[in-house]
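Structure catalogue
Derive tokens from sequence
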Amino acid sequence: GHAGEPGSVQCVYALKALEGLDVRYDAPRQVLELTAPLAWLNLRTTEIGRLATADETVVRPGYAAVLNYDTNVSRSSDGGHTQAMLAEGRITTPYGYLDHTQLWSQARSGTGVATDHDVRLDTSWRTVWPDQALALTLGDLVTSQIGSVGGSRLGGIRLEHTYTLQPWRSTAPLLSYLGQTTLPGTVDLYLNGVKQYSQQVPAGNYQLTLPPGINGSGVAQVVTTDVLGRTVVVDMPLYGGTGLLARGLTEWSVESGYLRKDYGLRSDSYDSNPVWSANWRRGLTDAWTLQLHGEGMRDYWQGGASTAVVLGRLGQLNATHVQSRLAGHAGRTDSMQFTTQRQGLSFSAGWSRSEDAFATLANALTPESFAPEGLRTRTASVSMGWSGGRWGNWSLAFLRSHKDGDVADRIATLNWNRNLGRRVSLFVGGNRNFASTREQWGVFAGISVSLDHNYSVSVNGSRNSDGSSTVQTELRKSTEGVGSVGWSVGGQRSQAADGAVHYNGVGSAQASTPYGDGWANLYADSNGQNWNATWRGGLVWAQGGLFSSRSVTDIFAVVSTNGVSGVPVYVQNNLAGKTDDRGLLLVPGLLSLQKNALAIDTLNLPADMHIAHNRLEAVPSEKSGMAVTFGLEKVRAATVVLRNAAGTAPLPAGSTVSDAAGQPVAVVGYDGLLYLEGLAEGPNRYTVTVTQGAATSCHVTLEYHEKPGESGLRNLGEMRCEP
């Protein structure tokens, strides 16, 4: 009630007692402004720029067989010759694929010494589950490694969880900014001065996620503008690292089997002692990724850790520590690398130390010959690069390497290159070893000029501290994709340290065809000449047909146009070829576990062709094949002009045409023109309902007969509609 009235209660509350409430009283205007914090309101947080995490639908592979081959033949003037072929056979199924590689080679020296090889390289079965990021490999494989340590061949089994099976998923840490606005407005994001995106937001909190792919140092700028035009600008210096996993993501693998011996020399040589190996990698935070690794067999074990850390805006630090023990000898290796990038400048510094007592699985094959002497090798390096625009690109590096008991190498290198316009490229460089007992230096320089029609010419030379030097020239015509030919001719003058001068010439040719790629090279000098030739291609059996193709290293698709030949097929908007007489085209070189856009050109198809779709997107599984069908179908269609029973006037537009079953199938157009499709061979009877004036009906029978070789829309002329 009002103050003073019977029964009323007067309440006074001190607004300033409310913590966080901003109270302003404008006495002349008699205005009280109360500004409450956003936290008092139950508003949801608006997300800006967050990537979708929905999985792609991977096409289940079918049954197919692939044979890739790489052949080489060489001959020399002294009578020596070699011929070799590397073949890969692959069988794909809906449950995985079997892969096998084999090497055949035969060599004869000029003195008649023969060397023949027929050896199996690798055989394995692999099944992948992209949705779960899991893969199972049985057979020959390479173990996991930590840093640059490890990676041994064995025959056995591996189970792994890896995000390489989900390339659509961003596993790198995504930086974000949390802001708020008291009124609705607009949020703009700029990265290094370039606007990335803009979005309207309601009042309340918002979380802005920066896009992936930020490497090196940069500045993000968030500009918030509310409906009253008030602007708030926030600058966020940031550093994007490489090789990191986002917080909470984990990759792992476990392997077990038997070490491979004499790889490339014998087909089935394995050690008799079992081996195990395990690897674990996790993003502990968005700036810190940790990796652990372990492996072992009989009297050998190895274990270590590796870490990658982003140090704020400074850069990224990678460090690795690994220890081993073999036959009673304990050893270790350590390394550390710091890298940073700032605009056009890059800097890297590294250090490593390794003991000769450090062992790997390769040493464990012959522990009896492992006899370390307690020596250590230490290296330190520093490098710097600068992209200077008009001043070209510079790089400077220094490496110091020292092994106990030997003189330390101290090698410095300097390189510079610059493009002059779009045609001319220059490069100059040099190196020097400052070691006291083997001081050496070398310099080199060159120029390359691009000409019209894919021609180019280059000249380069080098000179060393011992007086040796070389000068090379080359004229080249590059290939222009499938169906083109390229070639090159060149020569070289070399001078040895003793002053002897030597000349040689070289010529080569290259052909790229839909059925494979070929190379031929010829070398000649004062001592004779030799040549070699290579042909690389593949054979694919899929969808009941055999195709000759270029090498199918990963994914292929058999495109079908339902028997229609000569239809152009495009992959990612690039012409892949035309369908053959069967209406099929093999398309190699697709990307596994990623979207592949395939399309057909329908502009030159006849008018009576029905096209279900002219563009498809598919995500194929790893090293598999898929069938892509574009539903082209020839339609039995015709046009006819309908007139009344007397033939004096066309039937009015809008009249309904029904088939023999009474189903409406078409409508008469202007001037009595009627288009019908789905015609049957022989007589086709229709009823026409004329709705103009009093409703009446009439009947017409169309005779349709297929003529061999005929295409296009049939015109049946004029016909009368009889009562």
